[in-house]
Amino acid sequence: MLKIASLELENPLICAPLAGVTNLPFRLMAKRHGCGLVCSEMISANGLIHSSQKTLDLLRSLPQERPLSIQIFGADPGIMADAARMVADYGADLVDINFGCSVKKVLKSGSGSALMADLPKAEKILKEVRRAISLPFTIKMRSGWDRSGDEAMALAKIAQDAGVDALALHPRTAKQGFSGISDWSLIRRVKQEVSIPVIGNGDVVRPEQVLEMMEQTGCDGVMIGRAVLHAPWIFRQALSLLNGGDLEEVDLNARKKVLWDYFDDTVDYMGEEHACRVMRSRLAWFVKGLPNAAQFRASTTRIASREQARGLIEDYFATLEEQEEEYLPVLA
Asked: Which of 64, 96, 134, 246 could disulfide-pair with 71, CB 3.0 to 4.6 Å?
């Protein structure tokens, strides 16, 4: 269990916010596989206060995915406070601020990782948002703009003093993006500096690494991002290990069900035509490492209906079963 202020999670595993990915159907998938807390993709504070319909659509939720963290980003303290109030009114269980995104468009607006180079402004945003909401309040950050991690240490202390209830650290620099290796020792340093819960993130691609991160850093929870794109069952597998059980294998039927459920939820969320366009590239995520995955990926580029998608999925997995080839789940 992980407790963040008044919010008690069933387990310490969190699905990271992923831009353009962690919409409602994806979060439902993560939740079905044992994730303790799901997070929205990052949402523009400016878009919220200007009532952009595209932005407001990102707030759509269902009870079965709860608890839900909504992540916002922006650079203006007042606007961020107003956006946090809106998020609370829409029923979020937790409000999170992004201090980690290093995409050029976000940096140019002074948001995301740019705020780690402007700690006075970061502090003002945190204090304004804290005054605006009573919900549990968290931040997600990187190690900063150099490898020392000093900016992360400073922001962690500022956040705690401002009333932030927990923080997540992805220990790569803003310049690294997703290249190189994340420095887990920085997670341990932050954990030693603050008394609020610390959530580790970065390079957890196998269920065993959840235990390794917690043991090496002392972190209170583990946030998993890119690995979920290929193996949402990583949460269930990691939970089994955390509870002293064995590593559960994922058979072909379980993989097939992932594709079916994710596709159906996406149709319900977007409508059939839009969902088919989106899923032409996404269905192949979950067959990585299986025989003939490239051929399946090629076939999905022509999807135009739910019925066609189901037929392609059925045919592909039937072929695998007929071949009777050894199946080993691949998490990387």
From this structure: 96
CA angle (101 as vertex; 53, 78 as ends), nearest 5:
60
| CATH class belonging to 252-322 | mainly alpha
Dihedral of CA atoms 86, 73, 139, 152 in degrees, nearest 10, equals: -160
Catalytic residue among 35, 101, 219, 276: 101
pTM over the 0.90 mark: yes
The better pLDDT of the pair 171, 174 is held by 171
How many other CB atoms are there within 10 angstroms of residue 136's CB atom?
A: 20
Structure-block tokens of residue 232: 């949402």
Residue 178 clears pLDDT 90, i.e. is over it: no
So what's the architecture of 7-242 in CATH? Alpha-Beta Barrel (3.20)
Phi, psi of 38 (to 5 degrees): -105, 150
Residue range(s) of every CATH 3.20.20.70 domain in the chain: 7-242
Q: Is 35 a catalytic residue?
A: no
Structure confidence by residue, pLDDT tens digits, 179-232: 778 899 999 999 999 999 999 999 999 999 999 999 999 999 999 999 999 999
